[in-house]
Structure formats: C-alpha cells, structure tokens
Design brief:
The chain is an all-beta fold and about 375 residues long. It has a five-stranded antiparallel β-sheet with strand order 12-13-14-15-16, with no helix packed on it. The two termini are about 35 Å apart. The N terminus is likely disordered.
C-alpha cells in the first residue's frame, strides 16, 4: 500500500467576481494537485482564491500554526482567526492565539491589564467597525476557579460575576457565558446562565447596550418563560449550538429546547417567528423536521433568517436535507441548484451556513 502523506489544512479566501460578493474565509484541505476532472468542474467565476494561512506557517510570535478554530472576514479582505500553535499549552494540546491579518494580538497564557491570565480563547467576533471581540476563559488574580469573560480593545468589558447595568435587579449575577454575538454598534447579545432572582441560575439571552456608558441590559429570552411565537416555556438554551447569530440591526436567531413533557423539543426562533420545530411540518409538502442533529441557522437584516437541516416523511419513507430562507425552500437534496444547469445538491453538510447582510446565502 503506498504511503499517504498527511493532507495539510489552511484558511482560504475566495471572492465571487461576477457578483462582487463579500470575501469568504474557509477551512480547506489542500491536496498537492487538483485532478483535471475536478479542475474542469470548478466554476470559472471563483478565480481569485488564495491561502491566507496554513499548517506550518510561522507566526509573528515565533510559533507555528497547527490547527484552526473560529474565524471571521471583512468585505475588504481583512480577517481574524483563532488558531492553535506549537507553543506551550495552558490547557489541552497546543496554544491558542488570536490573529488579525496574520499577526498575534492575544494568546493563551497572556496576562490582561487586570492581572487575570487567559486560559482559553473560546470564540471571537468582529463589530461593525471591524474591531475584534473575543470570548475568553480567564483566571483572575488569587482565584482558584476560571471564569468567562469578553475582551475588547485590550480590556474585559464583561465577565462572570455581578451584572452591572440598568434593567436587571440588584444582586443579579452572570454565572456563565455560552456564546456571544455583536448586534448594533455598541451592543452585545450574550447567551449564558444568569441568576436574576433568588431562585437561582437560569439560561438567558441578554442584550447589553454600551452606547451611554453604564450598559442598559434587556432580557431577550429566559428559561422557564415562553418566547414568541411558542407558548411552551423554554426548557434550556443549548451551549455551543453554533446557531445563535445576530446582525447589525439587532435582529437575532436563537436555538432553544422547549419544555414540553419528558423530552425537550428542539426548536429555533427568529424575531418572533418559529424557524423549525422537531416533528413539526417543514416548508416542504408532506415532510416534517427530523432533528437528530440540530439545524444550522443564521440571521439576516429585518428579521430574515436561514435554516438548514434534515426532514423526513411522516412514516420515515424518505429523508431530505433542505435549506430554507425566511420560510421558503431555496435548495434541497436531490434537486439542481437554482441558477445552475448541472449542479445537483447531493448532501447538505452540517454545521455551517452563513448569510451576508445583503441576503446572499453561503453553504
């Protein structure tokens, strides 16, 4: 059997020249050569792909790139990414660093101005001005236990502990951060766990508005409480579902588990609209949502949304993956992709779909 060299991975940016769509930053497996038959099948309009960073790339701190995590890209091609390096690990294998256009701006093991030490970089986002925000796990000075925090421009603007701001009761605490998103300028949406009353911690989505100094805090979703359009209460907000998303007008989509008896029911919501619900009718005649895996979701301006997931007929005779944009099926397995003459969707791969604020879908 011939020896197979390991296939390196890389972050690649591509632009669709005919429509001037935003750059896409993608995780790709790089083969040494491209088969002629594959090269012939590639769309001609995607012709300026280039590698931003790949395994083995030397970094500005002297370490070497090993693996890739979260990443974001701006329309002008500027990018940010969380990657693993061969540096000394704080937790697990390799050291995670945050890059901006290839330069290290933050790393596990760094000390923040408060004296807290970064133990993990959990995720990152770009605000409307292109500034980086990062979700961290930090160890405060003298503390025995790590806490969650959100970092921006050199400081932590939110951390687990007392919730300081208007709109929440005195003594309220933020216990854990699951995920965060950037909404309007100076706004964060945070999914996590908070203690807003003496009854203890509950899953929550908070909107924090920093435009006037002391943040104005609004509770957007809370476990044990219904969220429109559902009448059943939220049982829980899943951690790291990677379907919590927000856009610059403040609209957001949220995955939830409904409390409806012995087993939780997977569902999604976007600005008062149900995006999906396990075993409920899908926007495909005679099909229902079949949510062994939670669907992917992303938000668009004005409450628009996209969701991609699995459906089945009532008696399990047929299963189809579908992609839905604001209630209308725009692609499904087994059919030719709209706008093409010969590209048939064979299978939707979880978990990633994305939608530009202009409404363009990427999957």
């Amino acid at each position: 059997m011939p020896h197979l060299a390991p296939t390196p991975t890389a972050l690649v940016t591509m632009r669709h020249l005919s429509h001037r769509a935003p750059h896409l930053l993608a995780l790709a497996a790089l083969a040494p050569t491209v088969a002629p038959s594959l090269a012939a099948a590639l769309p001609a309009q995607v012709d300026d792909a280039h590698v931003l960073i790949r395994e083995g790339t030397p970094l500005s701190n002297g370490e070497t790139a090993l693996f890739f995590g979260d990443y974001r890209v701006e329309n002008n091609g500027s990018w940010a990414a969380v990657i693993g390096t061969d540096g000394p690990a704080v937790l697990g294998f390799g050291r995670e660093v945050l890059l901006r256009d290839g330069n290290v701006v933050l790393a596990e093991g760094d000390a923040l101005p408060s004296g807290a030490v970064i133990h993990a970089i959990e995720g990152m986002e770009l605000d409307p001005n292109g500034e980086i925000l990062a979700q961290l796990s930090i160890l405060p000075p003298g503390a025995a236990q790590r806490i969650d925090a959100i970092w921006f421009n050199g400081i932590t603007i939110l951390r687990a502990g007392p919730l300081i701001g208007t709109g929440v009761p005195s003594g309220a605490t933020l216990d854990e951060i699951y995920e965060f998103e950037v909404g309007r300028q100076d706004q964060l949406l945070v999914a996590g766990r908070a203690s807003l009353s003496p009854t203890g911690g509950r899953d929550v989505v908070l909107r924090l508005d920093y435009s006037s100094g002391l943040p104005a805090i609004t509770v957007e979703a809370l476990s044990d409480t219904p969220i429109a359009p559902f009448t059943d209460p939220i049982g829980s907000i899943p951690e790291f579902a990677r379907s919590f998303d927000a856009v610059s007008d403040g609209s957001f989509v949220l995955p939830i588990d409904l409390d409806r008896g012995a087993l939780p029911v997977k569902a999604g919501v976007a600005s008062g609209v149900a995006t999906y619900e396990d075993d409920a009718p899908a926007p495909l005649p005679n099909f229902i949502w079949d949510l062994i895996e939670r669907p992917s979701m992303c938000a668009g301006l004005g409450g628009t949304y996209a969701v991609g997931g699995r459906t089945r007929t009532t008696f399990n005779l047929e299963r189809r993956g579908i992609l839905v944009k604001s209630g209308a099926v725009v692609a499904r397995e087994g059919l030719t992709l709209n706008g093409t003459s010969n590209l048939v969707v064979r299978q939707f791969l979880q978990p990633t779909i994305d939608m530009a604020e202009t409404g363009e879908l990427f999957f």
